[in-house]
Fold this sequence. Notes:
It is a single chain. The chain is of the alpha+beta class. The protein has four domains: 1-104, Helix Hairpins; 114-154 and 203-254, Urease metallochaperone UreE, N-terminal domain (HSP40/DNAj peptide-binding domain, Sandwich); 161-194, no CATH class; 258-366, Urease metallochaperone UreE, N-terminal domain (HSP40/DNAj peptide-binding domain, Sandwich), CATH 2.60.260.20. The chain is 27% helix and 26% strand. The protein contains eleven helices and 15 strands. It has helices spanning 7-11, 19-33, 42-58, 61-70, 72-75, 84-90, 92-99, 127-132, 273-278, 337-350, 361-366; strands at residues 119-125, 134-145, 161-162, 171-176, 179-184, 193-194, 207-218, 227-230, 246-252, 258-261, 264-272, 280-285, 290-295, 304-307, 323-330. A hairpin with a 4-residue loop joins β12 (280-285) and β13 (290-295). α2 packs antiparallel against α3. It is elongated, with a radius of gyration of 34 Å.
Amino acid sequence: xxxxxxxxxxxxxxxxxxxxxxxxxxxxxxxxxxxxxxxxxxxxxxxxxxxxxxxxxxxxxxxxxxxxxxxxxxxxxxxxxxxxxxxxxxxxxxxxxxxxxxxxxxxxxxxxxxxxxxxxxxxxxxxxxxxxxxxxxxxxxxxxxxxxxxxxxxxxxxxxxxxxxxxxxxxxxxxxxxxxxxxxxxxxxxxxxxxxxxxxxxxxxxxxxxxxxxxxxxxxxxxxxxxxxxxxxxxxxxxxxxxxxxxxxxxxxxxxxxxxxxxxxxxxxxxxxxxxxxxxxxxxxxxxxxxxxxxxxxxxxxxxxxxxxxxxxxxxxxxxxxxxxxxxxxxxxxxxxxxxxxxxxxxxxxxxxxxxxxxxxxxxxxx
Length: 367
């Protein structure tokens, strides 16, 4: 995020520039760096994307206000374009105004390409798997590029041909008086190319459905709702466009022992009334190891003892949360005669009234 250039600097305008100034500046940049005017020029394509991103933000009043106040960080990861085809799809009308033809069609007959759709896969994880990470094999269905024709749609050994109706532009322009209207070419469907001999495998579509198996590495420390983005594992693009992404959405099962609070774990640990009253040293099983814990004398119900660094690993890869042991004092349901006599003696020494309606601890215990 910090490596991005200032949007106003990219378009060569002042911060207080008007909407018309922004549009004019973008027009100059778009004409200079348009891919059709700079074929196979990666640097020009990058500057075209950079200028388009700047225009996309500064031409939107709400986004511009956010950018002016917080800079690139205020826009998060939503700003920018995946490739030039995303720009053509977003700014088709303004390219029509700038150049007299749609942004995805160059004078040389550029075929309209589109990025493939993103896919979602819901993955269930056990509690321990989410805490420490796991590698899972998943299987899903997607639309992939046809292997027979490499996504061209043309029969192997043949190729797509430039459309003779629109001469590869993809549009038919009709002029009536002062008005000029451009419509997609009916012969090629706006693609600028036709397929004389369709691929028999995909019927000329260039794509076909397939089942995909792959392994997904889930890092330790994930939680429900987290999405793992796997680049270009979505559906294949159209006419050679880039593939979409696969988003693996995680769903973590609850633990029967622990409650998770961020990277901390909370564990309810039972102790006897004697251990709580006199104090004790006990062993407590954590998520991955056993801990020796001191129970202070006079410990009350709900008292917490913290074991630092025994919780969930951080997704950043450094450190772990804490384990909080919550004490639950257990009162025995049945007592022997001797136990009752000893407790009654303790109550007498303590001056605790066991009379009706007093509700003393030992009275409740006997009840």
